[in-house]
Amino acid sequence: EVQLQASGGGLVQPGGSLRLSCTASGFTLDEYAVGWFRQAPGKEREGVSCASHNEEGDTYYIDSVKGRFTITSDYTKNTVYLQMNRLEPEDTAVYYCAVDLLSQYLDQTVRAPCTLREEYGHWGQGTLVTVSS
Fold first, then answer.
1. What per-residue confidence (pLDDT) applies to 99?
2. Which of 3-17, 69-83, 99-113 has the lowest mean pLDDT?
3. How far apart (Å, rounded) are the C-alpha atoms in residues 84 and 32?
4. Is 14 helix (H, G, I), strand (E, B) or coil?
5. How many other C-beta atoms lie within 10 A of the C-beta of residue 120?
6. CB-based contacts of 40: which residues, under 8 Å, 6+ apart?
7. Sheet strand arrangement including 79-84
8. Which member of 5, 15, 78, 101 has the lowest number of beta carbons within 10 Å of its beta carbon?
9. What span, in angstroms and rounded, lies between the C-alpha atoms of 119 and 133?
């Protein structure tokens, strides 16, 4: 069964840090571009960051998290992480990970940098991040 599981959320004070994990089962994450998304209460889901898993190791971040969030991958654990530093109340949301469904058909040497505008799928259950004092 193909599945993604996000974990690592919790309650943190403004300025604090959390590391989210996205672990895959049933497939290998490095065969896909992987994205992190979030949905705040009453808002639409938005893309946060993605890892292309291409030869260049391209990553992408939305402006509001640049310099604060870092996406990394551990292929031995089939896991993608999102390190979140200097968290702000505006970061409060349920965080999800998903894969670019078409990226599996492109070899890493020719895979284009991800932009979060691709077609993402294999959504798993999210993990709640609450930033509050």
1. 95
2. 99-113
3. 22
4. coil
5. 23
6. 90, 92, 93
7. 3-7, 18-25, 79-84, 69-74
8. 15
9. 36
